[in-house]
Amino acid sequence: MLKLYHFENSVCAQKVRMTLFEKGVEWESHEVNLFANAQYDPEYLKLNPKAYVPTLIHDGHAIRESTLICEYLDEIYPEPPLSSARPAERAQMRLWGKAVDEGLFEGVVVFSFSAMFRDRMKNQTREQRQQRFRNVGDAARRDRFMSTYDDGVESPYVLRGIGAYEIAFKLMDEALAGGDDWLSDNMFSLAEINLAPFVARLEYLQILDHWVAERPLVQNWWQRVKDRPCYQAEIATKLKQEEIDEMIESGAKISTRIGERRQEYIAAFKD
Prior knowledge:
By secondary structure, the chain is an alpha+beta fold. It has two domains: about 1-75, Glutaredoxin (3-Layer(aba) Sandwich); about 85-270, Up-down Bundle (Glutathione S-transferase Yfyf (Class Pi), Chain A, domain 2), CATH 1.20.1050. The protein has helices at about 10-25, 40-45, 65-75, 85-120, 125-135, 140-150, 155-175, 190-205, 210, 215-225, 230-235, 240-270, and strands spanning about 1-5, 25-30, 55-60, 60-65. Strands 2-1-3-4 form a four-stranded mixed beta sheet, covered by helices on one side.
């Protein structure tokens, strides 16, 4: 049986679980509590040296990186398909996963950190904070965390995240302009699955409207995604009410400034 090492409210784990749901396959759950630093446990590091979740175990092999895991599952369980049979359309679908990996993921991390986790770390001792920063391991990742801890929403990493989402939603609007319901070959695909947890996090943080309020095609697409059973099962109903309340309350603290910084980005980088 497949084994999945994951954390319930991890955006990357959510998209893998959505894929598993769509495929209808059974899997064995192994929770890695990120808040308890379980990702740094030596036994887990043997499976995933980067200390990321999720990790999929199949036939004795550890499959890492959520985008790759989703594609792997689509290959070994071809029905129902979550990618087009046409190579050109598959390439277009993969561009959405690439957008997530190259900007949207970092954006969600810094938005979430500046809204919620920054306050938690402020209540820790200096030694506890330094240990957390040391545990990051990756220098670029460490710099991102430290910048967001020091500067919050004013961090340059937050502006980069805002820009990544601005570009993604603009491209999404263009992709849907022809009347299709979905982003790749007009079929629900890994494009939607890759994007869904990241758009959901913006919505829970009460900042999604900054990008989609004037994009009705994207709004309608997002409602279709939320209506999917896989979204309801693996994101909407998995979240505890206290988690939702924390995201709403924390997001409200940064929402106005996120909107202002988005306008700064648009003014600076407009076509």
